[in-house]
Amino acid sequence: MSISRRTARSVRILGVASASAALVLGVAGNALACDIGDFSAAAACDDNGKGIITVTDTDASGVEAEVSVYLESNGADERLVGTQKVKGTAKGATVTFSEAWAPKSEYRIHVTAGKLVDEDISPNLTAPAEAACGKPTTAPKPSATPEPSKSPSSSSSATPSATPSASDSTAPAAPGDNSPSAAAGESNLAETGANSNTGMIAGIAGAFVVAGGGAVYFAMRRRNSSKTG
Fold first, then answer.
1. For domain 36-126, which CATH number applies: 2.60.40.3980, 3.40.190.150, 3.65.10.10, 3.30.930.10?
2. pTM for the full model?
Protein backbone atom coordinates (compact mmCIF):
# COMPACT_ATOMS: atom_id res chain seq x y z
CA MET A 1 0.00 0.00 0.00
CA SER A 2 1.51 3.26 -1.10
CA ILE A 3 1.25 6.53 0.85
CA SER A 4 -0.18 9.37 -1.09
CA ARG A 5 1.80 12.49 -1.56
CA ARG A 6 -0.76 14.38 0.46
CA THR A 7 -0.38 12.09 3.45
CA ALA A 8 3.41 12.23 3.30
CA ARG A 9 3.29 15.99 3.28
CA SER A 10 1.03 16.02 6.36
CA VAL A 11 3.36 13.68 8.23
CA ARG A 12 6.32 15.85 7.34
CA ILE A 13 4.60 18.98 8.67
CA LEU A 14 3.64 17.20 11.88
CA GLY A 15 7.25 16.07 12.42
CA VAL A 16 8.60 19.60 12.02
CA ALA A 17 6.02 20.94 14.49
CA SER A 18 6.88 18.22 17.01
CA ALA A 19 10.60 18.97 16.73
CA SER A 20 9.96 22.66 17.18
CA ALA A 21 7.84 22.01 20.24
CA ALA A 22 10.50 19.74 21.73
CA LEU A 23 13.13 22.39 21.13
CA VAL A 24 11.05 25.06 22.83
CA LEU A 25 10.29 22.80 25.78
CA GLY A 26 13.98 21.92 26.07
CA VAL A 27 15.01 25.55 26.17
CA ALA A 28 12.29 26.33 28.71
CA GLY A 29 13.36 23.36 30.82
CA ASN A 30 16.96 24.54 30.82
CA ALA A 31 15.84 28.02 31.81
CA LEU A 32 13.90 26.65 34.80
CA ALA A 33 16.62 24.23 35.87
CA CYS A 34 18.36 24.81 39.23
CA ASP A 35 21.60 26.80 38.89
CA ILE A 36 24.24 28.15 41.32
CA GLY A 37 23.23 31.62 40.17
CA ASP A 38 19.91 31.11 41.97
CA PHE A 39 21.67 31.22 45.37
CA SER A 40 22.94 34.20 47.36
CA ALA A 41 24.15 34.72 50.93
CA ALA A 42 24.43 37.59 53.44
CA ALA A 43 25.65 38.14 57.03
CA ALA A 44 23.40 40.25 59.26
CA CYS A 45 21.91 40.57 62.77
CA ASP A 46 18.48 39.31 63.79
CA ASP A 47 15.91 41.19 65.88
CA ASN A 48 17.54 39.92 69.08
CA GLY A 49 20.96 41.27 68.15
CA LYS A 50 22.37 37.81 67.30
CA GLY A 51 24.60 37.17 64.29
CA ILE A 52 23.09 35.18 61.42
CA ILE A 53 24.01 34.05 57.88
CA THR A 54 21.08 33.86 55.46
CA VAL A 55 21.13 31.90 52.16
CA THR A 56 18.37 32.64 49.61
CA ASP A 57 17.29 30.21 46.83
CA THR A 58 15.33 31.72 43.90
CA ASP A 59 15.14 28.50 41.85
CA ALA A 60 11.60 28.58 40.43
CA SER A 61 11.70 24.85 39.58
CA GLY A 62 11.69 24.02 43.31
CA VAL A 63 14.54 21.50 43.19
CA GLU A 64 15.61 20.60 46.72
CA ALA A 65 19.14 21.78 47.46
CA GLU A 66 21.52 21.23 50.37
CA VAL A 67 23.41 24.30 51.63
CA SER A 68 26.56 24.02 53.78
CA VAL A 69 28.34 27.00 55.35
CA TYR A 70 32.03 26.90 56.35
CA LEU A 71 34.13 29.48 58.21
CA GLU A 72 37.32 30.12 56.26
CA SER A 73 40.80 30.80 57.68
CA ASN A 74 43.88 31.36 55.50
CA GLY A 75 42.12 29.93 52.46
CA ALA A 76 40.96 26.69 54.16
CA ASP A 77 37.87 25.48 56.03
CA GLU A 78 38.25 26.17 59.75
CA ARG A 79 34.92 24.70 60.85
CA LEU A 80 31.46 23.79 59.58
CA VAL A 81 28.86 26.32 60.68
CA GLY A 82 25.92 24.14 59.60
CA THR A 83 24.04 22.34 56.81
CA GLN A 84 20.38 22.83 55.80
CA LYS A 85 18.06 21.92 52.92
CA VAL A 86 15.96 24.37 50.95
CA LYS A 87 13.46 24.32 48.05
CA GLY A 88 13.63 27.46 45.98
CA THR A 89 10.73 29.61 44.81
CA ALA A 90 10.44 32.41 42.29
CA LYS A 91 10.09 34.89 45.20
CA GLY A 92 13.02 33.29 47.05
CA ALA A 93 13.18 30.75 49.88
CA THR A 94 15.70 31.31 52.71
CA VAL A 95 17.57 29.26 55.28
CA THR A 96 19.23 30.89 58.30
CA PHE A 97 22.36 29.85 60.18
CA SER A 98 23.14 31.21 63.66
CA GLU A 99 26.70 32.50 63.62
CA ALA A 100 28.39 35.11 65.84
CA TRP A 101 30.45 36.40 62.92
CA ALA A 102 33.35 38.77 63.42
CA PRO A 103 33.88 41.84 61.21
CA LYS A 104 35.38 40.93 57.82
CA SER A 105 35.26 37.18 58.57
CA GLU A 106 35.02 34.98 55.44
CA TYR A 107 32.59 32.10 54.77
CA ARG A 108 32.38 29.49 51.99
CA ILE A 109 28.84 28.42 51.00
CA HIS A 110 28.55 25.12 49.11
CA VAL A 111 25.34 24.12 47.31
CA THR A 112 24.37 20.62 46.14
CA ALA A 113 21.16 20.07 44.14
CA GLY A 114 20.94 16.55 42.73
CA LYS A 115 23.00 16.30 39.53
CA LEU A 116 22.36 19.94 38.59
CA VAL A 117 24.47 21.86 41.12
CA ASP A 118 27.54 20.91 43.13
CA GLU A 119 29.63 24.04 43.67
CA ASP A 120 30.28 27.09 45.85
CA ILE A 121 28.59 30.46 45.73
CA SER A 122 31.19 32.77 44.23
CA PRO A 123 32.75 34.84 45.62
CA ASN A 124 32.92 33.76 49.25
CA LEU A 125 30.77 35.65 51.73
CA THR A 126 32.60 38.38 53.70
CA ALA A 127 30.96 39.73 56.86
CA PRO A 128 30.49 43.51 57.21
CA ALA A 129 33.44 45.60 58.39
CA GLU A 130 31.38 47.16 61.21
CA ALA A 131 31.35 45.81 64.75
CA ALA A 132 29.70 42.43 65.29
CA CYS A 133 26.09 42.13 66.44
CA GLY A 134 25.36 43.37 69.94
CA LYS A 135 28.34 45.76 69.98
CA PRO A 136 28.16 49.53 69.37
CA THR A 137 29.28 50.70 65.95
CA THR A 138 29.81 54.32 67.00
CA ALA A 139 31.94 55.87 69.72
CA PRO A 140 30.04 56.92 72.86
CA LYS A 141 29.20 60.60 73.12
CA PRO A 142 31.42 62.57 75.50
CA SER A 143 29.82 63.75 78.72
CA ALA A 144 28.66 67.34 78.94
CA THR A 145 31.41 69.80 79.82
CA PRO A 146 30.82 71.17 83.35
CA GLU A 147 30.20 74.89 83.57
CA PRO A 148 33.04 76.91 85.09
CA SER A 149 32.47 78.12 88.63
CA LYS A 150 31.37 81.72 88.98
CA SER A 151 34.08 84.19 90.04
CA PRO A 152 33.52 86.03 93.34
CA SER A 153 31.63 89.28 92.99
CA SER A 154 33.49 92.55 93.04
CA SER A 155 31.53 93.68 96.10
CA SER A 156 33.07 90.97 98.27
CA SER A 157 36.58 91.92 97.17
CA ALA A 158 35.91 95.56 97.98
CA THR A 159 34.90 94.85 101.60
CA PRO A 160 37.37 96.67 103.94
CA SER A 161 39.46 94.56 106.28
CA ALA A 162 38.34 94.44 109.90
CA THR A 163 41.97 94.55 111.13
CA PRO A 164 43.11 98.16 111.66
CA SER A 165 46.36 99.29 110.08
CA ALA A 166 49.48 100.13 112.12
CA SER A 167 49.00 103.85 111.62
CA ASP A 168 45.51 103.66 113.10
CA SER A 169 46.61 101.71 116.21
CA THR A 170 48.72 104.60 117.61
CA ALA A 171 46.82 107.72 118.71
CA PRO A 172 48.38 111.04 117.61
CA ALA A 173 49.89 113.28 120.30
CA ALA A 174 47.86 116.23 121.48
CA PRO A 175 48.99 119.66 120.19
CA GLY A 176 51.33 121.57 122.61
CA ASP A 177 52.19 118.49 124.61
CA ASN A 178 56.02 118.14 124.61
CA SER A 179 56.04 114.90 126.56
CA PRO A 180 56.83 111.98 124.33
CA SER A 181 54.18 109.42 123.84
CA ALA A 182 54.51 105.98 125.33
CA ALA A 183 55.32 104.56 121.97
CA ALA A 184 57.96 107.22 121.31
CA GLY A 185 59.64 106.61 124.70
CA GLU A 186 59.71 102.93 124.10
CA SER A 187 61.25 103.45 120.68
CA ASN A 188 63.97 105.84 122.09
CA LEU A 189 64.86 103.37 124.79
CA ALA A 190 65.12 100.68 122.22
CA GLU A 191 67.39 102.81 120.02
CA THR A 192 69.80 104.05 122.85
CA GLY A 193 69.79 100.93 124.88
CA ALA A 194 68.63 102.90 128.02
CA ASN A 195 66.58 101.23 130.71
CA SER A 196 65.38 101.81 134.27
CA ASN A 197 69.09 101.93 135.66
CA THR A 198 69.91 105.21 133.90
CA GLY A 199 69.46 107.37 137.08
CA MET A 200 71.73 105.19 139.21
CA ILE A 201 74.49 105.24 136.61
CA ALA A 202 74.24 109.03 136.34
CA GLY A 203 74.59 109.39 140.15
CA ILE A 204 77.72 107.21 140.27
CA ALA A 205 79.25 109.17 137.41
CA GLY A 206 78.58 112.43 139.24
CA ALA A 207 80.23 111.10 142.39
CA PHE A 208 83.36 110.20 140.41
CA VAL A 209 83.46 113.68 138.90
CA VAL A 210 83.26 115.33 142.36
CA ALA A 211 85.89 113.03 143.79
CA GLY A 212 88.20 113.68 140.87
CA GLY A 213 87.77 117.42 141.20
CA GLY A 214 88.60 117.27 144.92
CA ALA A 215 91.71 115.21 144.31
CA VAL A 216 92.99 117.73 141.76
CA TYR A 217 92.29 120.62 144.16
CA PHE A 218 94.24 119.05 147.06
CA ALA A 219 97.12 118.08 144.77
CA MET A 220 97.57 121.66 143.50
CA ARG A 221 97.33 123.10 147.02
CA ARG A 222 100.10 120.84 148.28
CA ARG A 223 102.26 121.77 145.36
CA ASN A 224 101.86 125.49 146.11
CA SER A 225 102.66 124.95 149.79
CA SER A 226 105.94 123.19 148.98
CA LYS A 227 107.02 126.05 146.74
CA THR A 228 106.30 128.64 149.45
CA GLY A 229 108.28 126.88 152.22
1. 2.60.40.3980
2. 0.48
